Amino acid sequence: MAFINRKRREIQLKIVYAGPAGSGKSASLSWIHRRFPGCFASRLLRVRAAGEKTVFFDFAALALPQAAGFRLNVRLYTLPGDERFEDTARLVLRGVDGIVFVADAAAMRKTNILALKRLASALAAAGRSLERLPLVFQLNKYDLLAAGSLLLPAATLAADLDPGLRRPYWVTSAARGKNLLPPLLHLIHLAAAALEGQARRRFPGLGLEGFAAAVKEHLRRCFPPVDEKRSRPATRSPGRQDAAAARAGLESRAYFLIPVERFEELLAAVQRGAAALARIAQAMGKEAERR
After folding, report:
1. Which residues of 41-70 are buried (b: 16+ CB within 10 A; e: fewer)?
2. Cα–Cα distance, 34 to 44 (Å, whole number)
3. Span between the terminal Cα atoms of the chain, in Å
4. Which segment, 31-45, 53-67, 252-266, is predicted with the most confidence on average?
5. pTM reported for the whole predicted model
6. Residue 133: count of CB within 10 angstroms of its CB
7. Domain boundaries, the chain
8. In terms of C-beta density within 10 A (0-12 exposed, 13-18 middle, 19 or more buried), how is residue 23 classed?
9. Cβ–Cβ < 8 Å for 173, 104
């Protein structure tokens, strides 16, 4: 369940982009952050090993106005797709409230299926169930069809990942910025609705009635419709402002390059810090309940 600070009237949701290595998780989050920098409360932080793909994670914080009397902070992470870094994956998945699974349409058919199974196993190891989490699918790289690439039909790929087709999916292109916002915005709304339902059952006096509807409206105002042909917000006209915004987006990223041999050391330090923060949050929660 999301972290709720009753005293400060704040709610924190954690959304994670998952999927096989190279599927476009980092590219998707980077595009959204670059196009809508005013919606984010932080720079896009990236921790990676020098010369490699994303090893640890990307991180960005999305801050929304008050909804049902609570200020909402949405923390967005990408999950490393390389199975060598399963410990990192488990750490990033801790406390997750919703998942965007980015499938690679250009990969071998079993690649996406195995990545989804590894995700389910990592969640199970943390006592969570993929079946019970808000989940959407982003079927990426279909822009390669225009270049003559042979790709698995989107309906087939969706059925591979979700045989009952119970979860929503979008056909996307992270390279061109096509259809990247709808999966994320829909998932945030699903996570907010799940939180509202849980709070109604467990904390009936918390006052979260209408929370999900308010979050959906705030998202609609913060993220205007996107012109797919230009991959720019439709409310903006092309020109110097777009180039300036693109430069500002690039400059807002912070890259942390670490030697591969020091990665395990960094991971252990972060895990110790996360454990300490969890103990502090638990203590604060007990203190708030006593009050």
Report:
1. ebbbbbbbbeeeebbbbbbbebebeebbeb
2. 9
3. 21
4. 31-45
5. 0.75
6. 20
7. 3-261
8. buried
9. no
Query: Based on C-alpha coordinates, what's the Rg of the chain?
Result: 19
**In this structure, what token pair is assigned to residue 263?**
């990665």
> Residue 227 corresponds to which tokens in the numbers above?
């012109």
Rounded Cα gap, residues 52 and 257, in angstroms: 9
Contact between 184 and 100 (Cβ < 8 Å): yes
DSSP state string for 79-94: ----GGGHHHHHHHHT
pLDDT in tens, 260-279: 445 455 556 665 666 666 66
CA distance 69 to 163: 39
What's the token pair of residue 211? Answer: 């929370």
Q: Which class in CATH covers the domain with range 3-261?
A: alpha beta
Q: Return the ∠ at Cα 281 (arms to 130 and 72), rounded to 5°.
A: 65
What per-residue confidence (pLDDT) applies to 96?
Answer: 93
**64, amino acid identity:** L
Question: How many C-beta atoms lie closer than 10 Å to residue 240's C-beta?
Answer: 7
Strand 54-67 and strand 232-233: the pairing is unpaired
Instruction: Please name the residue that has the structure tokens 């959906």.
Output: 216
Mean pLDDT is highest, among 59-68, 164-173, 268-277, for 164-173
Q: State how far the Cα of 195 lies from the Cα of 3, in Å rounded to an integer.
A: 10
